[in-house]
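User: Design a sequence. Structure:
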């Protein structure tokens, strides 16, 4: 869950490494560091506890000598977030940065200690630096020593490695966590994610797990840990369409705010080329059995909420579907019907639990599908077919536009599977939804939300409740709220409040109620009346909520435009995201990098 970056080329490396680390900061922000060649030809390391801004101050006007250089941002697993534990780690001529976990660290550490090695940090990474150094001192061959050291290692790693004696060379290795190569003119980049180098090149190659690369300026050779350097080959890059602007905040204060307002574009790009009547989601055509007898969705966090919405759409089309939290599913007996498709949903495409759940299904012979936002992600490679959402890079740790694009894709998927691929009112609604959302977002008046923000900010407790499609929206609203405001919040099915959660209700408690599901509105209103009767304050979000009902079943409302459920869910989701965003900003929280979280969770 850390972020790594490496460069080899003619530019002074430090400015580009620091700006790349800033773009990777969503992956972790406990500490950061860089290793680079100085003008005397030796490696210098600079590290700092805390955010990249602190490292940036340390680096100051230093540019580093052109050649190879590496950088890291850390999400602590082994050892506290101190300078000593910050990467890069060094041993003699070797300096390296690591994302992942070394499982046999203890055994390796004991062995190295018994051979006289002194450790400077508590990290598992440091053992790698010592192991590679030992092999290098034996062989004098940089690439060979990395391969020889890594065959002794168990665990997961993406690594970028420098050697004092080879100032232009960068070695990159992937065993598990993502590692992307960016290929420019006479220069190359490696990084945990594309936005780190998107300003320099859109030619990318995703390392496969088990691959190692030797990078010298624009020359790259890739092989595996068990093949000799002489057999390594040049990789074939693919061009990605992401716009570098996506990786910038532009005029927005935070990435999260920008990404909320990019949601309509995310919908448009995700649906484009897939929504022609008679030819929906053409990627599905080669798959058998078509349609499958049932679907099982596996996902985590926000992607799990998108899956819950997906289940509603599937069921409304008569397609049996279940939704599982990936970390639970992977350790339960697999009792789903034969012929089912198992569908992993993951923005990053790197979430360890989702990948693990899909691997289990694949081993048991099920057809696996991925829905991911990141081209070249592990999910794309490891599923039988991967449908890409085209939300563009999502930098804010709290997922926003990616959720919208997942939901849109699932709507389309339900139409394609049910054979309703000609004009239906759902298809018409979905086709219009990007434009409707764009109009809605453009009309958001920040002042309108001031009072709502004050109310939520000072509420003793905020609960989110809804029925039908409003239930996953409530869960998502609560997740967004707690992860960036740090205030307790939970989401409930509206009908479930009376079975326990209502005990929490008293004056000072606010219930946020997305109310897109018109068919269940009267039921939800009854539930909300019960809340108000006990002193709770109700904020309703929906269309056609009559002013005359204020003070009867709700206290305040945010109006959505009149329209079908298939448009309303997007608007309501945007409101929930925006409200949490505004409360977090009012509280002075770090919205884009909330405490203790990382954007892609590549550990169990
Ligand atoms: O990359 P993924 O979609 O697999 O990530 C899953 C969750 O970690 C993610 O949605 C998380 O819950 C976000 N912080 C939610 O905003």
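Assistant: Done.
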């Amino acid at each position: 869950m850390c972020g790594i970056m490496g460069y080899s080329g003619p530019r002074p490396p430090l400015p580009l490494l620091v700006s790349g680390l800033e773009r990777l900061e969503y992956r972790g922000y406990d500490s950061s560091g860089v290793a680079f060649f100085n003008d005397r030809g030796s490696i210098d390391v600079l590290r700092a506890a805390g955010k990249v801004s602190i490292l940036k101050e340390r680096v100051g006007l230093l540019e580093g000598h052109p050649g190879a250089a590496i950088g890291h941002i850390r999400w602590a697993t082994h050892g506290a977030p101190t300078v000593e534990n910050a990467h890069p780690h060094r041993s003699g001529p070797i300096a390296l940065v690591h994302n992942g976990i070394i499982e046999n660290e203890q055994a390796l550490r004991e062995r190295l200690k018994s051979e006289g090695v002194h450790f400077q940090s508590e990290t598992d990474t440091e053992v790698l630096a010592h192991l590679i150094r030992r092999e290098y001192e034996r062989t004098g061959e940089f690439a060979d020593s990395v391969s020889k050291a890594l065959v002794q290692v168990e665990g997961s790693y993406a690594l970028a490695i420098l050697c004092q004696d080879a100032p232009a060379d960068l070695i990159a290795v992937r065993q598990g966590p993502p590692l992307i190569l960016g290929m420019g003119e006479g220069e190359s980049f490696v990084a945990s994610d594309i936005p780190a180098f998107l300003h320099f090149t859109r030619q990318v190659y995703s390392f496969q797990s088990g691959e190692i690369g030797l990078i010298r300026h624009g020359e790259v050779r890739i092989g595996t840990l068990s093949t000799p350097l002489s057999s390594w080959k040049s990789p074939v890059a693919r061009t990605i369409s992401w716009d570098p602007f996506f990786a910038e905040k532009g005029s927005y204060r935070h990435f999260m705010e920008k990404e909320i307002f990019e949601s309509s574009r995310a919908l448009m790009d995700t649906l484009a080329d897939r929504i022609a009547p008679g030819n929906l989601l053409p990627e599905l055509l080669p798959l058998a059995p078509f349609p499958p007898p049932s679907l099982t969705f596996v996902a985590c966090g926000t992607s799990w909420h998108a899956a819950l919405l997906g289940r509603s759409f599937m069921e409304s089309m008569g397609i049996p579907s279940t939704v599982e939290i990936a970390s639970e599913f992977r350790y339960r007996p697999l009792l789903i019907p034969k012929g089912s498709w198992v569908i992993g949903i993951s923005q990053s495409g790197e979430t360890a639990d989702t990948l693990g759940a899909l691997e289990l299904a694949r081993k048991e012979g099920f057809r696996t599908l991925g829905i991911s936002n990141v081209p070249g992600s592990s999910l794309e490679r490891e599923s039988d077919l991967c449908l890409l959402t085209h939300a563009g890079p999502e930098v804010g740790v709290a997922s926003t536009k990616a959720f919208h694009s997942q939901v849109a894709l699932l709507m389309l998927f339900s139409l394609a599977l049910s054979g309703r691929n000609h004009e239906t009112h759902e298809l018409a609604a979905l086709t219009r939804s990007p434009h409707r959302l764009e109009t809605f977002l453009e009309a958001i008046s920040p002042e309108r939300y001031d009072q709502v923000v004050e109310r939520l900010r000072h509420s003793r407790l905020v609960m989110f409740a809804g029925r039908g499609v409003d239930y996953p929206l409530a869960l998502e609203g609560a997740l967004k709220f707690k992860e960036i405001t740090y205030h307790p919040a939970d989401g409930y099915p509206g009908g479930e409040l009376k079975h326990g959660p209502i005990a929490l209700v008293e004056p000072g408690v606010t219930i946020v109620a997305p109310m897109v599901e018109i068919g269940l509105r009267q039921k939800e209103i009854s539930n909300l009346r019960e809340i108000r009767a006990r002193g709770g304050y109700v904020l309703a979000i929906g269309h056609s909520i009559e002013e005359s009902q204020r003070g009867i079943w709700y206290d305040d409302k945010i109006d959505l435009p009149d329209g079908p459920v298939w448009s309303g869910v997007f608007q309501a989701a945007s409101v929930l995201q925006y409200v949490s965003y505004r409360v977090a900003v009012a509280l002075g929280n770090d919205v884009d990098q909330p405490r203790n979280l990382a954007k892609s969770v590549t550990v169990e």
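The pocket of 5-amino-5-deoxy-1-O-phosphono-D-mannitol is lined by residues 300-303, 346-348, 351, 354, 397-399, 479, 483, 597, 600-601 (CB under 6 Å). Residues 247-439 form a domain with the Rossmann fold fold (CATH 3.40.50.10490).
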